[in-house]
Amino acid sequence: MKMISKAAAALLLGTVVCAPALADEGTKVALVPGGPHPYFAAWEQAGADAKTEFGLGAADYRVPAKWELNLQSQLLESLLTQGYNSFLIFPGDAVGTTSVAQELVDNGAQVIATAGCLKDPSPALFCLGTDTGNSAYLGAKELIRAMGGKGKIAHFTGFLVDPNTQLRIDAVQKAADETNGAVEVVQVIADIDAPQPAEEKINAYLAANAAGVDGIITTAWVPAVVAANSLRKIGDKRIKMVGIDHDEVVIKAIADGFVDGTMLQNPYGQGFIGSYVLNRLRNGCTLKEDGPWKSNALTNRFVDSGTVFVDQATAPTYVNAMVGITADLLAGFEKDFLTCS
Amino acid sequence: MAHAGADRPIPPGSAPRRMSSGMRLLLGNEFGLAVLILLTAATFALTLDGFTSPFSVYTIGRQIGIDTMIGLAMMAVIVTGGLDLSVGAIGVCSAMLFGWLMQVMGVPVLVAVPLAVLFGASLGFVNGFTVVMSGVHSFIITLASMSIFFGVMIFLTKAAAFNGLPPQVQAFGKMRVLPGISPLLLITVAVCAALVVFYRYSTLGRQMLAAGANARAAELSGIRTGRVIVACHMLTGLLAAIAGLMVTARTGAAVPSMAGQLGQDWLLPAFLAPVLGGTLLSGGRVSVIGTLLGATFINIMTSGLLLMRVGEFWILAFLGMMLLIAVLADRTRQIFLTSRGMI
Q1: Closest residue of B to A120, CA-based?
Q2: What is the ipTM of this complex?
Q3: Which chain A residue has the Cα nearest residue B150?
Q4: Would the pLDDT of B5 be above 60?
């Protein structure tokens, strides 16, 4: 994971014409996910690269010990006490994190909701993340194409308490509905974005129903890894699958033909660009009210950090795809979203 | 500390020696905890920048209020030698009902609060009634009810939060009654005072202690232990509901994930505070003040460790170690006191 991030950083810094970096050692950025999860591992390198590139006082990746709203809140409060003044936060809860974010802002800090949004109204400057519903929809369309436009789909996804999960379920269903009955979502298994429940439920489901399923879509990291491993064990490439994210297991399964593709997200870019923007905002820039903000189910100030489908042909160079979307976003961010004197 | 020591073995032919009040104080959990808290807080205050800042003191106090309430909820059922794994689920369900009543039904805050608290008590009644009627240990019953309560709540709410609550709810959660003091902490102190009186002076409170210390002896004394156990679970539900409302005030919204998956995030603080404080897992003895002190110690340590940047993952390990040490220390104290004929 670190090697991938380093490669991404090297490529990105080598290919992107960065906006002028204004060194501000007073900008202390904390990159705080909701808890430990492989998706966020790239944030550590992104923070380190941003610190060097933009001359920040700090850009530290700090992980709550577990996915617990209260632990994240305590960590954020402590980081504020420690002098951090800029926060990239994956909200432990789209509503529940608003209160602590407001406290940070009330005490002079700035917050960008990153990789997941806070529900409006919120004190976050904006939300920088994947358009989860759209990503799931595009992934489902790719799966349906791989299935030849007909068949039965099983959908393995994340925690039900995460509002994104329902958006993903709806998006996959929408793609299936557009086939006028040719494709049917026969099973949705949620609450499995952790190794133990994912192993248990996916393996049990496939052991009993593999013959009755033509396609699998996964819209959470751990189910993608577990389902890819299961298909490799079964050894039957009849079942088509589209995963999510860039775990090595999934990428290798794509290269070996057990998985048809994956919807890449852009965690490195989120951490890197987010740190850059926070620094610019601390140094005289302001956000454009009339910028090309997008909307999603949670907020009207959304910036899509990008998603891209990677298949067998593009799997060996998927890092380039991540670099590409980060470079594009970074190159145009100041012009599109910032007003700098 | 309220207690009923009827289940303690007494050496044949000897009566328990009377312990002086000074000795009892020195051997009590509360004294040890109070000393630890003072030493720890003083050390952190002298060595860590920001530990005594108004913001830090305020957030620590607010968290002590919430964690203590969660601990009291578990303590209320531990008194019978039972457990309630569904405290988190009850707290969340009550908070979600609170949010629904106000946001959807337009019920005023002052009406929604007692309704939500009563709802928590009613979920506790379901637990207690099932435990008594089935004869199955509360561990199993509440393991099941935790999933049922939480699952039904998720089904009904579709995991959507209620964030359109009256502004006074969030304002209350952010209020500072005195410089650096959250009203949530004051509520907890008031509930602690009420519980001390309840266990020490009320008939039902003393019956709870007696039933927990020795259920058979309590039955022979005319106490209807089944009813008492149901009452304990209802008290647990009521206190869990108050904790849920406090978290709602803190977050300004009723959030399904406030206690994690199935409400399990509350389990560690629920056990840690009362056990550290001297409540016996075998039942028959509670320590309300000890629970408050236990939660205080945990939060001071957690805050200090975070400021020391020892690594977030070590904090959970530390809390687990504290629980283990508390249980072992409790066992050692029992053996010591028994060997001296003091209990």
Answers
A1: B163
A2: 0.77
A3: A161
A4: no
Q: Is the Cα dihedral A232, A233, A239, A245 positive or negative?
A: negative
Q: Residue B107 has which token pair?
A: 């019920």
Q: What is the pTM of this model?
A: 0.80
- Which residues in chain A have their CB less than 8 angstroms from residue B265's CB? 68-70
| A261 part of contact set with chain B, CB < 8 Å | no
> Which option is the CATH number for A132-264: 3.60.40.10, 3.40.710.10, 3.10.150.10, 3.40.50.2300?
3.40.50.2300
Residue B201 counted as domain residue: yes
Closest CA to A322 of A7, A19, A8: A8
What is the number of domains present in chain B?
1
By C-alpha distance, the chain A residue nearest B308 is A82
* Rounded (to 5) percent helix, strand, coil in chain B: 75, 0, 25
Q: How confident is the model over B217-238, as pLDDT tens digits?
A: 988 888 899 999 999 999 999 9
Kind of pairing between the strands at A308-311 and A302-304: unpaired
B221 within 8 A of B210, measured Cβ to Cβ: yes
- CATH level 3 topology of A2-129+266-306+334-339: Rossmann fold (3.40.50)
Longest dimension (CA), chain A: 63
Q: What are phi and psi of A305, to 5 degrees?
A: -80, 0
Identify all chain B residues contacting A103, using CB atoms and an 8 Å cutoff.
Answer: 174
